[in-house]
Write a structure and sequence with these properties.
The chain contains no helices and eight strands. By secondary structure, it is mainly β. The chain has a single domain, classed as OB fold (Dihydrolipoamide Acetyltransferase, E2P), CATH 2.40.50.100. The strands form two sheets. Strands 1-8-6-3 form a four-stranded antiparallel β-sheet, with no helix packed on it. A hairpin with a 2-residue loop joins strand 4 and strand 5. The radius of gyration is 11 Å and the shape is globular.
């Protein structure tokens, strides 16, 4: 199981995938807002979304798991 983690602390602005979605390498899965900038977070490998751990409006810290992939 692979995990997509937050690259920095911020607020979840948008979740771009859902359970069962296929994800390719470098595909954006979540958009964070940090210091008034939109920061896309991409998967570092391909897979199928097992679980989305965050929702829009959640605050996350650097290293927090955003999405789990199979």
């Amino acid at each position: 199981m692979a995990q997509v983690v937050a690259s920095m602390a911020g607020t979840v602005l948008n979740v771009l995938v859902g359970p069962g979605d296929s994800v390719s390498t470098d595909q954006d899965v979540v958009v964070l807002e940090s210091m008034k900038m939109e920061v896309p977070v991409a998967a570092d490998q391909e897979g199928t979304v097992r679980e989305v751990k965050v929702q829009q409006g959640d605050f996350v810290n650097e290293g927090d798991v955003l999405v789990e992939l199979d």
